[in-house]
Amino acid sequence: MFEFSHRLQKLPPYLFVELDRLKAEAKARGMDVIDLGVGDPDLPTPAHIVEAGKRALEKPENHHYPSSVGMMAFREAAAEWFRRRFGVELDPATEVVTLIGSKEAIAHFPLAFVNPGDVVLVPTPAYPVYHIGTLFAGGETYYLPLTAENDFKPDLSAIPEEILSRAKILWINYPNNPTTAVVTKEWFAEVVAFARDHGLIVAHDAAYTELYFDGYVPPSILEVPEAREVAIEFHSLSKTYCMTGWRIGFAVGNPELVKGLTTVKNNVDSGCFQAVQEAGIAALTGPQDCVEEHRRIFG
Ligand SMILES: Cc1ncc(COP(=O)(O)O)c(C=O)c1O
């Protein structure tokens, strides 16, 4: 009786829901399934983070609406973590926004900058939300193939001029899901130079920066000084601290890009539960040996 909007009708089946269905079918047939679907660490959240969350839950001041940009204390903790990890200083007031997990922000971000008919450059294969957010914003996805021949990095020189002239956002994601490819700071510098030349926003999904092995340590795109002019980077506490269910992350970067995302969030959500943000502060500022342990187990 009720017809879904054209927007919903255009959606491909959500990959991870589809994988869950196939998994359930295989299990029902008695198969022993190794789940290579959604990246949900099968370890509990470290105890000191859970304890901080419990204490925060008891505080009446946390029972009210949070602000959609996030608690200043969480944004300061994120900025401090960023300084320690990447050596980059951020202004927590203008260059950091708290997220209800990075997925919502990846989906919402194009609403702030993409008009109908604009092109969004999306790697393939990739996390499906880059395309879905584009679709919701009325944009057109132009896919950039990631192949073994190009080291699973998009070949920016192969994008036709007609597409580039309409392109607003370039999505990248390193360490990459699903290819596991990694990049250097020099490659990020090339991407930033390309974006500045073509008036593009670089949206870097950095959900996996803390899961690294064999002596390689992933850089942030913001380690490239000029990135601050064109880039926003999406970080997640989900994988790093085994907090997928808590729904917390943060975005950092160019103040106008952060402001655009925050404006969308002001209008569609009421922020991340403060008790969760306090647990997030414990995660970012507390002992980091749990992260080392996660790397050891998952590596
Ligand atoms: C590449 C990538 N980006 C972002 C996310 C979203 O993570 P979250 O919303 O939990 O921060 C995921 C989750 O699987 C992912 O694989």
Question: Would you write up a description of this structure?
Answer:
By secondary structure, the chain is α/β, with parallel strands linked by helices. It has a single domain (48-298), classed as Type I PLP-dependent aspartate aminotransferase-like (Major domain) (Aspartate Aminotransferase, domain 2). It contains 12 helices and 7 strands. It has helices at 6-9, 15-28, 47-57, 72-86, 102-113, 129-136, 161-166, 185-198, 227-230, 255-268, 274-285, 289-298, and strands at 96-99, 119-124, 140-145, 167-173, 201-205, 231-236, 249-253. A 7-stranded mixed beta sheet has the order 1-7-6-5-4-2-3, sandwiched between helices. Helix 5 runs parallel beside helix 6 (129-136). The radius of gyration is 19 Å and the shape is globular. The chain starts with 5 loop residues before the first helix and ends with a helix. The mean pLDDT is 95. The protein binds pyridoxal-5'-phosphate (PLP). Pyridoxal-5'-phosphate binds at residues 38-39, 101-103, 127, 173, 177, 205, 207, 236, 238, 244, 249. Residues 38-39, 101-103, 127, 173, 177, 205, 207, 236, 238, 244, 249 line the site of pyridoxal-5'-phosphate.
- Structural category is alpha/beta
End-to-end distance? 50 Å
- Gyration radius over CA: 19 Å
Low-confidence stretches: none
| H/E topology pattern | HHHHEHEHEHEHEHEEHHH
Question: Number of DSSP strands?
Answer: 7
Helix proportion range: 40-55%
Mean pLDDT: 95
Which CATH-level-2 architecture? 3-Layer(aba) Sandwich
Tally of structural domains? 1
Bound molecules: pyridoxal-5'-phosphate
CATH level 1 name: Alpha Beta
Count of separate DSSP helical elements: 12
Instruction: Determine the strand fraction and express it as a percent band.
Output: 5-15%
Shape: globular
